[in-house]
Specification:
Layout (H helix, E strand, L loop, with lengths): L6 H13 L21 E5 L3 E3 L3 H18 L3 E3 L18 H5 L5 E10 L2 E10 L4 E2 L4 E6 L3 H17 L8 E8 L6 E8 L6 E2 L7 E6 L5 E6 L6 E6 L5 E3 L6 E7 L5 E8 L2 E8 L5 E3 L7 E6 L5 E6 L6 E6 L2 E6 L6 E7 L5 E8 L2 E8 L6 E2 L6 E6 L5 E7 L7 E7 L6 E3 L4 E7 L5
Parallel strand pairs: 1-3, 1-4, 2-4
Antiparallel strand pairs: 4-5, 5-6, 5-7, 8-9, 8-31, 9-10, 11-12, 12-13, 13-14, 15-16, 16-17, 17-18, 19-20, 20-21, 21-22, 23-24, 24-25, 25-26, 27-28, 28-29, 29-30
Helix pairs in contact: 2-4
C-alpha cells in the first residue's frame, strides 16, 4: 500500500542531506512509512517559552502531551532536553540550527504559552533542522485554559501531518465500556475519554448492562446497546446533555448499531421470531428498512466511508464469515476465505481496508484485509482479542483483550496497522468495546 512504501526513500534522503553542503539541502523533511523496519525520526521539542509566571506549569504540561503523542505513535524518538544545547529565550528569535544538528535532531518544535485571564494563547513552529527552514507557517491556538490538553493534541496533529503526510488522529475521543467487579457479576458503564485515556467520564450508571457504543459522524451522539428493558435494545445518547432515546420500541432484540456516514440513519441487527437480520432506522422518522433475510444470523454491520456498501458478519455459509452488500440490501458477496471464523468487521475511514476479529485454533486475532478479501494480515494473537475500531486517519486500530481465568478482565489496546507498536490504552477500571470518534472540531 502506497502509504507504507517510502521509509527507505526517507532514510536515503537523510544520508544525502547529511553529506551535502547546506545550500544544496532544499528538499522538505518528511518521514515516510513502510511495512519494513521503521526507524523512528529523532525529534526535539525546545522548552516552550512561558509568558508570565502562571504560564510555566502549562508550558511543561503541554510539552509533555505533545511528545507523548508523537513518541506514542511509534514514528518518532524524543531527543531528551538534557541533550539540548540551545535554550530559546524568545519565541521570535532565529533558531540556532547548528546546535540542533550536532545532537542529530531531524526536526525541531518551538513554541510559547501565554495566559491572559482564562484564555490560553499557544504558538508553535516546526523546523527541518538539516534544511534550516520552517516546515509551513507557524500556528496559534487560543481557547479557555482548561482546554490545554486539546490544544496540545492539535499541535501534535499538525506536526504529525506535516512530517508524515498523513491525516491526524490525536485530537479525538474514544467511547468504551468501563467494567468493574468479578467476572460473573461485572458492572458496566458507558464511558468516554480522550484518545490517550485522559479525561475519562461516565455517560451512564452501572444499573444496566451496556455494550457496543458507536460515535455519530459529528461526534455529538453515541448509539449503544442496553439491557435497560430486560432485553437488548439500541439507544441513542447525547454526549453533552446525556439525553437518551430508544431507537425502536417494537418487540424483539436490537443490537450492534452503527451510524451511517451522513448521520441520518443507524444500521443494526434485529431479532424477530428467531431470525436475526440487518435493518436501517431513519433517525428523523424512525422508519425501518430490512436489508437481509433468511435463517442465518446477520450482524455487526459497518458502512463503507462513501455510504454505498455495508460489510457484516453472517453464518449463512455454515460458519461465521464476512460479507459485503449494497447499502440497499440484496445479494451479498463473501470476502473472507481463510481458516477459522471471522466477525466484527469494520470499514477503514480510508476506504481501502476492513478490520476484523478472527478465531482460529482456539486463538483470537485482530486482522485487516482489502475490501475484496485479499491480502489478509493478522496483527495480534491472544486468548481473546476482539472489537477493532479505526483511528480517524485509518492508521491505528483499537481493540480489547481479555485474559484467561476467573480473574481475567478486559483491557483496551492499540496497534499500528502494520502490526507494530502494540500498547495498552489507559481506562477507568477495565475497558472493552472501544469506539474511536472522528477528529474533533
Amino acid at each position: 500500500m502506497k502509504y507504507y512504501t517510502k521509509l527507505i526513500i526517507m532514510a536515503l534522503a537523510l544520508i544525502i542531506f547529511k553529506n551535502l553542503p547546506l545550500m544544496a539541502q532544499t528538499k522538505p523533511l518528511r518521514i515516510e512509512i513502510s511495512q519494513g523496519v521503521i526507524e523512528p525520526m529523532p525529534i526535539a521539542l525546545s522548552k516552550f517559552m512561558a509568558v508570565g509566571d502562571i504560564s510555566v506549569k502549562y508550558s511543561e504540561k503541554i510539552s509533555s502531551v505533545i511528545m507523548a503523542d508523537l513518541v506514542g505513535s511509534g514514528l518518532f524518538r524524543e531527543i531528551p532536553r538534557s541533550a539540548h544545547i540551545s535554550t530559546a529565550t524568545d519565541f521570535n528569535l532565529p533558531v540556532q540550527f547548528a546546535d540542533w544538528r550536532v545532537i542529530n535532531a531531524d526536526a525541531l518544535i518551538t513554541g510559547s504559552v501565554n495566559i491572559q485571564g482564562d484564555k490560553l494563547i499557544l504558538k508553535f513552529r516546526l523546523f527541518d533542522v538539516f534544511a534550516q527552514t520552517a516546515l509551513g507557517e507557524g500556528l496559534q491556538f487560543q481557547a479557555n485554559k482548561n482546554s490545554w490538553r486539546r490544544m496540545a493534541h492539535k499541535i501534535s496533529d499538525a506536526v504529525y501531518s506535516r512530517l508524515t503526510g498523513e491525516a491526524a488522529y490525536f485530537d479525538s475521543r474514544v467511547a468504551y465500556i468501563s467494567e468493574e467487579g468479578p467476572k460473573n457479576a461485572r458492572k458496566k458503564k458507558l464511558a468516554i475519554m480522550d484518545y490517550d485515556g485522559a479525561n475519562s467520564r461516565f455517560l451512564t450508571d452501572d444499573n444496566d448492562i451496556v455494550l457496543a457504543p458507536r460515535f455519530s459522524p459529528n461526534n455529538k451522539e453515541i448509539v449503544y446497546t442496553s439491557y435497560k428493558s430486560g432485553t437488548p435494545k439500541v439507544y441513542l445518547i447525547n454526549v453533552d446533555t446525556l439525553d437518551q432515546r430508544l431507537l425502536d420500541e417494537q418487540p424483539g432484540m436490537t443490537f450492534a448499531p452503527r451510524f451511517s456516514p451522513d448521520g441520518r440513519s443507524v444500521v443494526m441487527s434485529l431479532t424477530d421470531r428467531g431470525n436475526t437480520d440487518i435493518y436501517t432506522v431513519d433517525l428523523k422518522n424512525s422508519r425501518k428498512t430490512r436489508l437481509t433475510s433468511g435463517a442465518s444470523i446477520d450482524t455487526a454491520p459497518s458502512y463503507s466511508p462513501d455510504g454505498k456498501q455495508i460489510v457484516f458478519e453472517s453464518d449463512r455459509g455454515g460458519r461465521q464469515q464476512i460479507y459485503v452488500m449494497s447499502v440497499l440490501g440484496g445479494d451479498a458477496r463473501r470476502i473472507s476465505f481463510g481458516k477459522g471464523s471471522y466477525g466484527t468487521p469494520v470499514w477503514s475511514p480510508r476506504g481501502d481496508m476492513i478490520a476484523f476479529t478472527k478465531i482460529n485454533q482456539g486463538r483470537f486475532h485482530i486482522g485487516v484485509m482489502r475490501t475484496d478479501g485479499k491480502n489478509e494480515r493478522l496483527l495480534t494473537a491472544s486468548f481473546l482479542d476482539e472489537g477493532p475500531s479505526w483511528s480517524p486517519n485509518g492508521r491505528v486500530i483499537m481493540f480489547f483483550r481479555e485474559t484467561a481465568g476467573a480473574n481475567g478482565a478486559p483491557e483496551i489496546y492499540s496497534v499500528d496497522v502494520t502490526g507494530r507498536n502494540l500498547k495498552r490504552v489507559k481506562t477507568f477500571g477495565s475497558g472493552s468495546d472501544p469506539a474511536w470518534s472522528g477528529l474533533l472540531k
